[in-house]
Amino acid sequence: MPFATAPKTFRRTAGAALLLTLCVAMLGAYVRLSDAGLGCPDWPGCYGKALVPNTTSLYPERPLVHHKAWKEMVHRYAAGTLGLLLLGLFVMARKPVLAYARGHTTALLLLVIFQSLLGMWTVTLQLHPLVVMGHLIGGFAVAALLLMVWLEPRTNRLQVGRGTVATARIALVVVVMQIMLGGWTSAHYAAASCPDFPTCQGEWWPQMNLAEALWPAPPPAAGDYEGGTLAGESRTAIHFMHRLGAVLTLLIVGGLAWRMARMAGMARAWGVWLGTVAVLQFAVGVANIWLMFPVGMAVAHNGGAALLLLSLVAANLQLKSTTGVNCHSSSSPWRGQGP
After folding, report:
1. Are residues 193 and 296 part of one domain?
2. What is the Cα 96 distance to its own chain's centre?
3. Which residue windows are transmembrane per the record (predicted)?
C-alpha cells in the first residue's frame, strides 16, 4: 500500500483532516450560496460573542439574522477544528520516522494560518471577490496537500508512457484554472447570468464585457460586495468563461481518461474513474442551469470540483513515466498494456 510505512495515528489523523477539509469547503460553499457570508459582520466572534447572541445592538447596519449567523459560525468552528488537526500533524511530523512529511505538514500549517486571515478579510473587506476566490482556492489547496500527506510515502507507482504523464499534468493545471474561474463566478454572483444551456441568454455569443469581468478590484456598492456589484454584461462574461472552461476541462480530462482506459489493470480503473467524475461534474453544472441554481445542487457542484481535483492529484502522484524502463521486459507488469 502507498502509506504502509506511515504510523497509524498519523495516517488516521491525516485522513480525518482531509475529510474535515472537504466538509469545511462544502460548508463554506453553502454559507456563500445561501447569502450568509456576512451573517456575522465581525471576526472571529459573532456580534462580539463566541456564540451567536439572541439579541444585540452591535452593527445596526447589519441586523442579526440568526440562521445566517449560525451558518457562518458553524463554518468557523469546523475551520478552527481543522486548524488544530493540522497543528497536530505538524507536531507528529517532527518524529524521525515521519521526516518525509515535514515539508508538507509545514506548508499545511502556514496555509491554514493564511486561510484564517483570508476568512477574516472576507468579513472585514465585505466579501471582496478576490478574497472570496482566494479563500476557496486555499481550501482546495489544503485538501490537495492533505491527500499528498495521506498517500506518502508512495510505492508501486504505475508505469505509463510519457504522453500519459504529460496529459495528466496538463489536466491537473486545467482543472485548477477551472476551479479558479468557478470561484470568480461565485464571488461575483454570476452563476445565473446565463439561465439557459447550451445557449446563453438565447445566443451562442452574448454581449459581454471581458475587461471589467477580469478586473481584480471591482467597485463596491452600498459598502459591500454582497449580491455582486458588476454590470450584467460583465457577469455574463464571467459565466461564459467558466462555461467554456468546463468544455475544455471535459475534453482534456476525458482524453486522459480514454487514454488510460485503453490500458490494463489499475491504469484502466483510473481511466474509468476520472472519466466518470469528469462527466458527472459537467452534468451537475448543466443541471444547475436547467434547475435554476438550487443551493443543494450548487454545493454539490463545489463538491464535484473537489473530487475531480483530488482524483487528478492522486493520479499524478501514482503515475510514473516509463522513460528509461524496458517496457518489453518479461518482468514488466505493463508489457503490451498501452502507451
Report:
1. yes
2. 32
3. 74-93, 105-124, 130-151, 163-181, 240-258, 270-293, 299-319
Q: Same domain, yes or no, for 162 and 274? A: yes
Secondary structure string (H, E, C) spanning 284-336 = HHHHHHHCCCCHHHHHHHHHHHHHHHHHHHHHHHHEEECCCCCCCCCCCCCCC
Co-location of 164 and 206 in the same domain = yes
Could you report the per-residue pLDDT of 1-40, keeping only the tens digit for each?
344 456 889 999 999 999 999 999 999 999 999 999 999 9
Q: How far apart are CA 15 and CA 28, in angstroms?
A: 20
DSSP secondary-structure letter at 49? B
61 catalytic, yes or no?
no
For residues 332 and 326, the answer to whether their CB atoms sit within 8 Å is yes
Task: Report the distance separating Cα 102 and Cα 96, nearest Å.
Answer: 10
In a shared domain, residues 286 and 316: yes
Task: Give the list of residues 6+ apart from residue 83 with CB closer than 8 angstroms, or none.
Answer: 112, 113, 116
- HSE, side-chain direction, 13 A CA sphere, residue 123: 24
Q: Are residues 98 and 178 in the same domain?
A: no
Last residue of a domain, one of 130, 156, 182: 156
Residues 245 and 238 sit within 8 Å (Cβ to Cβ): no
Cell numbers for 238, please give them: 464571467
Beta bridge partners of 203: 200
Same domain, 147 and 285: no
| Domain of residue 285, residue span | 158-325
Describe the crossing of helices 232-261 and 265-290 by its angle, rounded to 10 degrees: 160
pTM: predicted TM-score of the whole model, two decimal places? 0.90
Grid coordinates representing 34? 445561501
Residues 143-197: tens digit of each pLDDT: 999 999 998 876 678 888 999 999 999 999 999 999 999 999 999 999 999 999 9
Residues 93 and 140 in one domain: yes
In the three-class reduction of DSSP (H, G, I as helix; E, B as strand; rest coil), residue 159 is classed as strand
